[in-house]
Please model this.
Amino acid sequence: MSSYAFALIAFLAYALTCVRLLLYRKEGARHRHHVSWIAWGLLVILAGSSVELAVDGHPIGVFEAARAVLLFLFVFGVRGNVARLLWSE
Model:
């Protein structure tokens, strides 16, 4: 596979993870300020990474693409609830 294909995979994973975090609805969950800040930081870093890949388009390796996909799977697995990423219930 081409390194640009890995960049496209990572871009899509970062962008979709950002969308999932933005669309999270707490529906009765407690609001925790420190978790909100962590979620905000995660969103900023992921959005910055996706913008960097879109603008710069530099080739990346298989491990960075795999890391992006794993993070995507983790966030979608907890349905965007960052608190569940940090602590088990």
